[in-house]
Amino acid sequence: MSSLVTETPASQRLVETGAQPLCTLLDLTDLARVGFRGAQSAEYLLGRGFQLPEAPNRAVTQADGSHVARLSQTEYFILGSAADQGMRIADEEARWEMDHLANYLLPRQDSHAWLQLSGVAISEVMAKLCGVDLRPHAFGPGAVAQTSAARINVIVINVGAQLTPCFQILFDRCSRTYFKAALSDAMAEFS
Q1: What value does the CA radius of gyration of the chain take, rounded to a whole number of Å?
Q2: Do 120 and 177 sit in the same domain of this protein?
Q3: Tens digits of per-residue pLDDT, 96-108?
Q4: Are strands 33-37 and 144-149 parallel, antiparallel or unpaired?
Q5: Is residue 71 domain-shared with residue 18, that is, in the same domain?
Q6: Least confident among 10-24, 39-53, 140-154
Q7: CA-CA distance, 172 to 180, in Å (whole number)?
Q8: What is the 3-state composition of the chain as percent helix, strand, coil, each rounded to the nearest 5?
C-alpha cells in the first residue's frame, strides 16, 4: 500500500484555491482537424512548419494554438486552433495533393467528433468513464492515450498545464450525442 498516491479531492482543491470551475465541456466538433499517415509524413509536416512530437502517443502544441498528436510511428492527428477558427488546418487539408512522398491524407472532419474537457476535476471525471489513469502524475501535458471511455474508442490528448488542466477528446462522430451525455453525467458531481 505504500505505493498509493494520495491526492486532494477536486472539490477541496477548488475551495482551497477559490479559483476556476471544477470542470467545463466545450464541443469543438466544428473546428478543423485532419490526419496524415505514411513513412514520409513527418518530413511532409516538418516542411509545412509543424513541430512534431518525438515519440508516438505524445502531442505538441503549436505556436498558433493548434495541436499535433503522434498516434504511431507514422501517423499524426492535427487539431485546429480556435484562434483562427481552424483555418490553418483546413487549408492544409485543402492544399494536400498526392505526390511521390509516402504521405497520405486522412480526412477526420466527418469521422471524429471533438470535445474539450477542462478544469481541475478532469481526471476525476474521466476516471468515472475510463480505466486508464489520466491523473497528472501518470498522464502529464503532452500525453496521448488511445483507449476506451464509456464503452467507445477515444483518443485523449492532454494539452493543458498543471494550472489549467485540459483534455482534447476525439471519438467516432456517430457517438457524439451519447458520449457528450456520458461526460455531462460524469461531470454532474463537479458542477
Answers
A1: 17
A2: yes
A3: 988 888 999 999 9
A4: unpaired
A5: no
A6: 10-24
A7: 12
A8: 25, 30, 45
Find the domain containing 161 and state its range: 10-28+112-190
- Cell 468513464 belongs to 129
- Is the distance from CB of 64 to CB of 88 less than 8 angstroms? yes
The whole-number pLDDT of residue 1 equals 39
Q: What is the pLDDT of residue 15?
A: 42
Residue entry with cell 507514422: 74
Residue 40 sits in the same domain as residue 69? yes
- Exposure string for 58-74, b = 16+ CB within 10 A, e = fewer: bbbbbeeebbbbbbeeb
Choose one of 107, 139, 169: the last residue of a domain.
107
- Mean pLDDT of the chain, nearest integer: 90
| Cβ atoms 151, 130 nearer than 8 A | no
Nearest to 121 by CA among 165, 172, 173: 165
DSSP per-residue codes, 128-185: TT-SS--STTTS-TTBEEEEEETTEEEEEEE---SSS-EEEEEEEGGGHHHHHHHHHH
Q: Can you tell me the distance from the alpha carbon of 1 to that of 126, in angstroms, rounded to the nearest whole number?
A: 24
The partner residues of 58 in beta bridges, in order of sequence, read 70, 143
Place of cell 505524445: 58
Sign of the alpha-carbon torsion through 154, 160, 142, 90: positive
Dmax of the chain from CA atoms?
Answer: 58
Q: Is residue 3 part of a domain?
A: no
